[in-house]
Amino acid sequence: MHLTEEEKKMLESDNPAVRKAMKLLVKLGDIYGAEEMVEINSAQASGVSYKSIGDPGLKFLQEFADEGAEVSVPTFANPAGMDLERWEEMDISKEFAEKQNEIIEAMKGMNITIASSCTPYLWSNLPGRNEHVAWAESSAVSFANSVIGARTNREGGPSALAAAITGRTPKHGLHLDKNRNPTHVVEVEADLKNISDFGALGSWVGKKVEDGKPYFVGVTSAGTDELKSLGAAMAASGAVALYFVEGVTVDQRDVSDLERLSFTEGEKEDEYLKLTASEEPELVVFGCPHCSINEIEEISKKLEGRTVTKDLWVFTSKAVKAWSDRMGYTDVIEEAGGKVLSDTCNVVCPIEDMKYESMGTNSGKAANYLPGFCKQDVMFADTTELIDKVVE
Ligand code: F3S
């Protein structure tokens, strides 16, 4: 693998963390057949939740921090395992909270911004088209590649951190033009009315194309919330990191040679059924990926003047929560009996250790992950139906 003089110097750096990071990237580059490194403009650090990384991950981060690791490009942390301020209200144990805070301190020590969110592109870290970045959370990776047109592979926790420290990542996979072409055409015949319909489509397609690059035709309109829902679901049920929506994310392309799939009303209904194992959720969650301000506004309007009889949690970033507070949406949701939580999410908080066994979600990604990762029976439905389930 060709290295520049500066990159060679990093391999010999006096700073052990820089040495270690560059060594790791060279090793990965060799494994993936990269010919060179590419400079990146931002990174996203995953493996923030204590539930996901446990003591070995915490030790890894602390060692890196103690060795003098510091990120050299803007780097944002993914969700943690709890709301960093309201963790007691989530029934998080003191032991878990202490470990989680140690992770946060180690990351802060490396100058990683504790954004604790999977949607940094909604309020701060918005790369440009064709900009190279090293992001790690699968829905954010999908959004960056597909909607923004930036370039990133799906990094693991250590490789994203190494990229953040050196400002480099091996140039392979989705950093290269030759790997950014569609592999399947998906004809969307079903009517997509809301973000959960986009999640159902994503969940169905991800299983069919696995790590392919689907090209959607027939989607007449899709905004940021619909696209983040679609991409997140495909990255969860499959490993899609790049997709195209004709007329929305790209102009028309010649895709006449590609395998074609059709997503009909029947397939849509079937996907809802497949992702639903319970009709009686004890907890309804929104915000996978983290809610935008528009989604929170919609939830608050639906809850205005009503009373939640079970539990209802809305997950978002701290940044969007601040807007929600200011707009009075948080008050409306909390006066109804719900909670607006930040820094964490329905999958990476230790929900399986709480009192819940069944959850309702409007997210195709969460519906795929909650049964295995959080031991929950899921009700997958749209926002209105879920709210009607848990309010008077
Ligand atoms: Fe984000 Fe957590 Fe869902 S990281 S995409 S809210 S599983």
Describe the structure.
It is a single chain. The chain is of the alpha/beta class. It folds into three domains: 5-177, Aconitase, domain 3 (2-Layer Sandwich); 181-273, no CATH class; 275-389, Aconitase, domain 3 (2-Layer Sandwich). It is 42% helix and 13% strand. It has 14 helices and 13 strands. A five-stranded parallel β-sheet has the order 11-10-9-12-13, with helices on both faces. It is globular and about 65 Å long. The N and C termini lie far apart (63 Å). The site of FE3-S4 cluster has 15 residues, from helix 13. FE3-S4 cluster binds at residues 78-79, 118, 137, 139, 232, 288-290, 315, 345, 347-348, 365-366.
Protein traits:
alpha/beta, 392 residues, Aconitase, domain 3, binds FE3-S4 cluster, 13 strands, 3 domains, single chain, 5-stranded parallel beta sheet
Overall 3D form? globular
Low-confidence stretches: none
Strand order of the largest sheet: 11-10-9-12-13
Helical content class: 40-55%
SSE topology:
Elements: H1 5-11, H2 16-32, E1 37-39, E2 43-45, H3 50-66, E3 75-77, H4 94-109, H5 138-148, H6 157-166, E4 168-170, E5 184-188, H7 195-209, E6 214-217, H8 224-237, E7 244-245, E8 259-263, H9 265-274, E9 283-286, H10 293-303, E10 311-316, H11 318-327, H12 329-336, E11 339-342, E12 358-361, H13 364-374, E13 377-380, H14 383-390
Parallel strand pairs: 2-3, 5-6, 5-8, 6-7, 9-10, 9-12, 10-11, 12-13
Antiparallel strand pairs: 1-4
Bound molecules: FE3-S4 cluster.
Compact description:
This protein is an alpha/beta fold. Helix content is 42%, strand content 13%.
